[in-house]
Specification:
Blueprint lengths: L2 H6 L9 H11 L2 H5 L4 H12 L6 H11 L4 H32 L9 H47 L6 H25 L1 H17 L4 H9 L1 H11 L6 H16 L1 H7 L2 H54 L4 H18 L2 H18 L21 E11 L2 E11 L5 E5 L5 H8 L7 E6 L2 E2 L5 H5 L2 E4 L10 H8 L5 H10 L3 H6 L17 H13 L5 E5 L7 H18 L2 E5 L11 E5 L1
Parallel strand pairs: 3-8, 3-9, 6-7, 7-8
Antiparallel strand pairs: 1-2, 1-4, 4-5
Helix pairs in contact: 2-4, 6-7, 6-9, 6-15, 7-8, 8-16, 9-10, 9-15, 11-14, 11-16, 12-14, 14-15, 20-22
InterPro entries: AAA+_ATPase, ABC1_TM_dom, ABC1_TM_sf, ABC_transporter-like_ATP-bd, P-loop_NTPase, Type_1_exporter
GO molecular function: ABC-type transporter activity; ATP binding; ATP hydrolysis activity; ATPase-coupled lipid transmembrane transporter activity
Protein name: ATP-binding cassette domain-containing protein
């Protein structure tokens, strides 16, 4: 493969491809390019130079400032100083060693070499100490910011989940959050400090060499430019996320369904399809590695040219008498050490592409809501009012339309209807999991659109389908949701849910682990535990979604009698979603959804 093939990834006979020129001209809207016989690399350089423009928008700078604001300015200065001192010690070690060898070749007295020997030792020790110090501080900074990002994004996830678009969209959403957090953590470790350190080293080298050779000193400022720009221009494309996602999904599906595929005899076909997807993903990775290799190849050419030109300028300074022979050797080795430090710049610029992509993926996430002045409750208004409510998971497929009802304090209400008519969806709307597409939900006369989700949910003690049960102990389930609850209160609410007999027969009582999401409990026991947890909130409205599902008639009747007696005594309101016809006789209002 010749040099042209290395650059283009194509046979050299296609190097001057006029079809590619016309595409470049169309994309750039510059007709004169199409009329010129520009080689493909030049055209691609112009295209990539145009594509780099969005990176310099104010939006990206604003996002970068938000990242940097996670910690104080001093938290950046200290590790950056340690990184700079470590790099200076590394260059000083090479320079001191070069001075020591060049001076020793002249056979001076041993005392004349004392300074060089001491400098070599000091720089060697300083490089190790400052490098360790910089790594410790930078990792501490990165993981502090990582924690802050996770807390911030998990708060956002808690407000947005569950998504109306379904479980698959939720998985992609959480995958975006977790991978984005890890990428932004690496920004502090791999993207922030290397370019800044290199630029400071370039300024220091230029200032130190300028009195002896201004032309050579200016090279210290010029050589970082290609190391900063080339990766930004040519290494923008990450591995194809679509191909990676397709391959990962297929791999997980195969792992989960191996037994079924083996039993059905379809495993060879699935493996063949998986191999094709793996090959497509591998081609994406290979193409990216080819781009990285090209960039590194040209950076090495730049470095070699810098070294030769730097050497010629130093020789000219020696001939003019402004620099000694020993000084020439020292600065030549310092230039070599500076090139070594430059090697971290290209990976840092590539990491910036990943950081920017993560910021763009997470940009649509809403910011935390600003605190608003709450409207005072209206004593004459109903406890809960729904007016002309409409909602749909998909555009054009309504689940609820023009729904209106009113519930007064102490008025027990049942919501009934066929499966799929929107009963659980209505419960999710009332508890602010989703915002309605149209209409209003009023709590004590206040529009929930002007209330925070936490404020809305404080009015509801809810047990909804799909609620999660913590696995450590029954007591832990209560204390996590209701901090400060006493053991007597836990036993009382378990009694209301008709779980007291079960707790008495458990060896560990309320310290018994219910298992992952209640896996050690039966379906009916799990529903009753969720009902007890909802009762413990003591909110004005108790919202129960199918609380008697999985229960025999006797157990369901005992539980509902206890709950209704307690609610009447506490003057609380029950909102019951049920298919149980016997429960309808115990409520004052029935809302039928169609």
């Amino acid at each position: 493969m010749n040099l042209l093939q290395v650059w283009t990834g194509k046979p050299s006979s296609r190097f001057f491809n006029r079809y590619a020129h016309s595409i470049a001209a169309a994309r750039l809207s510059l007709p004169h390019i199409a009329r010129q016989s520009l080689p493909w690399p030049t055209t691609r350089f112009i295209l990539n130079l145009r594509r780099i423009c969005p990176m310099t928008t104010t939006t990206d700078y604003r996002r970068l400032k938000e990242l940097l604001r996670l910690v104080s300015f001093s938290s950046y200065v200290i590790p950056l100083t340690a990184a700079l001192l470590s790099a200076l010690c590394a260059m000083g070690l090479i320079g001191a060693a070069a001075w020591l060898i060049a001076t020793a070749a002249l056979q001076p007295p041993l005392a004349a070499l004392t300074l060089g020997i001491t400098a070599v030792r000091a720089c060697g020790i300083g490089r190790a100490v400052f490098r360790y110090f910089e790594r410790w501080l930078s990792h501490r900074l990165a993981f502090h910011c990582y924690t802050e990002l996770q807390l911030h994004l998990y708060d956002i996830a808690a407000r947005l989940l569950p998504l109306r678009s379904g479980a698959i969209a939720q998985g992609s959403f959480l995958q975006t959050l977790t991978t984005g957090c890890a990428t932004l953590r690496d920004f502090y470790l791999r993207c922030l400090f290397p370019p800044v350190t290199v630029l400071l080293l370039a300024l220091a080298g230029c200032a130190a060499l300028f009195p002896f050779c201004p032309a050579a000193a200016s090279l210290f400022l010029l050589i970082p430019i290609p190391h900063l720009l080339l990766p930004l221009i040519f290494d923008r494309t990450a591995p194809d996320e679509k191909e990676q996602s397709v391959y990962r999904s297929a791999l997980l599906d195969l792992a989960a369904g191996q037994d079924e595929l083996r039993a059905g005899g379809n495993r060879p076909e699935v493996l063949l399809r998986l191999n094709r997807q793996a090959s497509a993903f591998g081609c994406c990775l290979l193409a990216r590695q080819r781009r990285l290799s090209r960039t590194d190849f040209f950076l090495q050419i730049f470095d070699a040219g810098f070294f030769l030109f730097f050497f010629l300028l130093l020789c000219q300074a020696v001939l003019s008498g402004s620099l000694s022979f020993i000084g020439c050797g020292v600065w030549l080795m310092l230039g070599t050490a500076f090139l070594t430090e430059l090697r971290s710049t290209a990976p840092a610029m590539r990491q910036w592409h990943l950081t920017r992509k993560a910021l763009q993926r997470m940009a649509p996430l809403p910011a935390p809501p600003l605190p608003q002045a709450e409207e005072p409750p209206s004593l004459s208004a109903p406890l809960l009012a729904v007016k002309d409510l409409g909602f749909s998971y998909q555009p054009g497929v309504p689940v609820l339309q023009h729904l209106s009802f009113t519930i007064h304090a102490g008025q027990h209400t049942a919501i009934v209807g066929e499966s799929g008519c929107g009963k659980t969806t209505l419960a999710g709307l009332l508890t602010a999991f989703w915002a309605p597409d149209s209409g209003k939900i009023l709590v004590q006369g206040r529009d929930t659109a002007n209330m925070t989700a936490d404020c809305i949910r404080s009015f509801f003690g809810s047990s909804l389908q799909g609620s999660f049960i913590f696995p450590w102990s029954i007591r832990d389930c209560f204390t996590r949701l209701h901090p400060g609850i006493s053991e007597e209160q836990i036993h009382f609410f378990l009694h209301l849910a008709n779980l007291d007999n079960l707790i008495e027969h458990l060896p560990q009582g309320i310290e018994t682990p219910p298992g992952e999401n209640g896996s050690h409990l039966s379906g009916g026991q799990r529903n009753r535990l969720l009902t007890a947890l909802a009762l413990a909130s003591q909110a004005p409205i108790l919202l129960l979604d199918e609380p008697t599902a999985g229960l025999d008639q006797k157990t369901a009747t005992i539980m509902m009698n206890r709950i209704l007696l307690y609610l009447d005594r506490q003057k609380q309101t029950l909102l019951l979603i049920t298919h149980d016809p016997l429960a309808l006789s115990r409520v004052q209002q029935v809302i039928r959804l169609r």
